[in-house]
């Protein structure tokens, strides 16, 4: 008789306490959290627990298991994240086995604004600057088709450019010069 009492006590105690299961949650930083949770833990409760452990806002947390997003759109309200409705999915109803690894992700926010169109840097001109051919390497300005030539935008490096051209021309002409050999 004693044996039957102990087995009935064991069954009573197991029906009172839900079964616990261990879960692993991989964070975006690469760390892995180990959690021991009851199988009847709801998804909003798990998300709230992870929000507290990671210091990330509850709204931005996303959980993935087996390549699928675990969502509970109707289960949590913004004012009370622990508020559970009868339709709140639990670890058991989501078919998450013990020792499973869940992936915690955060949404990518922001990004770069669209690039502004470059405008001609010549005085009062508001035309769009031409790419590559409108870039002046002497004054680092960006110019439209009307002002892209050095003479048109009165480049500060115009004299330097002319001097470089003369020097190149001089070197070329000296290289092509013929020497007369006298006395042959």
Automatic annotation (TrEMBL):
Pfam families xref list: zf-AN1
Entry keywords, A to Z: Metal-binding, Zinc, Zinc-finger
Presence of keyword Zinc-finger: yes
Region labeled Disordered — which residues?
1-20, 72-93
GO molecular function list: zinc ion binding
> Bias category Low complexity: which stretches?
1-15
Q: Matching PROSITE patterns, A to Z? A: UBIQUITIN_2 (PS50053), ZF_AN1 (PS51039)
Q: Where is the Ubiquitin-like domain?
A: 21-111
Domain of life from the UniProt record: Eukaryota
The AN1-type domain is annotated at: 114-163
In terms of SUPFAM superfamilies, this protein maps to: AN1-like Zinc finger, Ubiquitin-like
Q: What is this protein called?
A: Uncharacterized protein
């Amino acid at each position: 008789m004693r044996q039957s009492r102990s087995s009935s006590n064991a069954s009573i105690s197991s029906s009172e306490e839900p079964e616990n299961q261990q879960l692993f949650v991989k964070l975006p930083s690469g760390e892995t959290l180990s959690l021991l949770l009851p199988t009847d833990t709801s998804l909003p409760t798990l998300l709230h627990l992870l929000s507290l452990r990671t210091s990330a806002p509850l709204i931005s947390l996303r959980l993935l298991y087996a390549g699928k997003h675990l969502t509970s759109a109707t289960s949590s309200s913004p004012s009370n994240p622990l508020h559970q409705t009868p339709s709140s999915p639990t670890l058991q109803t989501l078919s998450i086995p013990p020792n499973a690894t869940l992936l915690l992700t955060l949404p990518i926010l922001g990004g770069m604004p669209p690039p502004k169109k470059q405008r001609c840097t010549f005085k009062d001109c508001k035309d769009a600057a031409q790419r590559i051919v409108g870039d002046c390497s002497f004054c680092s300005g960006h110019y439209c088709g009307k002002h892209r030539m050095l003479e048109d935008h009165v480049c500060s490096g115009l004299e330097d450019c002319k001097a470089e051209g003369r020097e190149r021309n001089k070197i070329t002409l000296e290289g092509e010069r013929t020497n007369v050999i006298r006395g042959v």
